[in-house]
Amino acid sequence: MSGHPEGRCGIEIVGIGSFLPERVLTNHDLESMMDTSHEWIVKRTGIHQRHKADWENGETVLHLAKPALENTLADAGIEAKELDLVILATMSQEMSCPPTACRLVDMVGAGNAGAFDFSGACCGFVFATNVAYGLMQTGPYNTVAVIGGDTLTDIVEYNTRGRAAAILFGDAAAGVILKKTDDQSKGLLGQAMHSDGSRWAGLYIPNTKFDFAPGDEPDEEQFGLLQMNGASVFRFAVETFPQVIESTLEKAGVSPDEVDHYVCHQSNQRILSAARDRIGFSEDKMLVNIDKYGNTVAASVPLVLNDLHKAGKIKRGQKIMMVGLGGGLTWGTSLWQL
Questions:
Q1: Residues acting as catalytic residues
Q2: How many domains does the chain have?
Q3: pLDDT tens sequence across 125-134
Q4: Could you give the CA distance from residue 219 to residue 192 in angstroms, rounded to a whole number?
Q5: Interacting residues of 18 by C-beta distance below 8 A, sequence separation 6+
Q6: Is the pLDDT of residue 6 over 60?
Q7: Residue 26 falls within a domain, yes or no?
Q8: How far is CA 90 from the centre of its chain?
Q9: How far apart are CA 287 and CA 310, in angstroms?
Q10: Do 167 and 233 sit in the same domain of this protein?
Q11: pLDDT for the residue 23
Q12: Which of helix, strand or coil describes residue 151?
């Protein structure tokens, strides 16, 4: 099946790229900061290390997104001035105004390309890619960049109190260039975007005493820091992750074996393994890189895509499914014919 109603254009992924901050924070580094161990972290999460932006000296998500976009443009073989639209999926905006994406467009020399930030937490890149596809089908946007980037290491505590979040998160930016094509076989075959706001307290960042979840004691020292109920999010993810994959495949008329790569948000090794075991696809269809990067939030899915691309495993004609789940709570998919 083509996945495109008659009259719709094809859309292809023509470039993939990423950027990682230089500093690497290993599990052994964390042992000196809090009550934890390398073995404990690996057993619970699968993470060995993560990259950390030098935010103390001004390295923000913008400084990760710029080289990530430049690398993605280079991979696509196009110039920044050819971009019609730039979407930055992030929850690490430098300021509430202006949108970080506007500054990104200026820094890479993309002229007056449209730009906006997209806040979808760990689902941000998947949701933003679906939105970009819809805008390209209905609007005058021929070439669109979708970048996911986050720097959550600056909103976690590197001590025993903040251990649950501190061991998980790393910083990165990565993304894709989408371009219209006459080949209608290329593009989105299926998608899903869901939320359950009643579960918001699983992951949130309070800014005032009124923002704390019921049962959480307001604490000024926690303003601006990530609050996480890891156990409840884990249980929800183990159940929901495979469900949304299965429902997307069923609606698209695609069998699990037809998908060449499941490009999944890297939240926890155990969640990924549970999804793979339930659906029953082979291990080589799901690249896991959480051991190297940790949970990089909106950068997570495109980082997997980039690692596959660098390894020469992304090929024309393949089907890939991008899957995300995160704060909100939100979860969704993006099933592509390359």
A1: 122, 265, 295
A2: 2
A3: 999 999 999 9
A4: 37
A5: 68, 71, 72, 172, 173, 174, 175, 299, 302, 303, 306
A6: no
A7: yes
A8: 9
A9: 12
A10: no
A11: 97
A12: coil
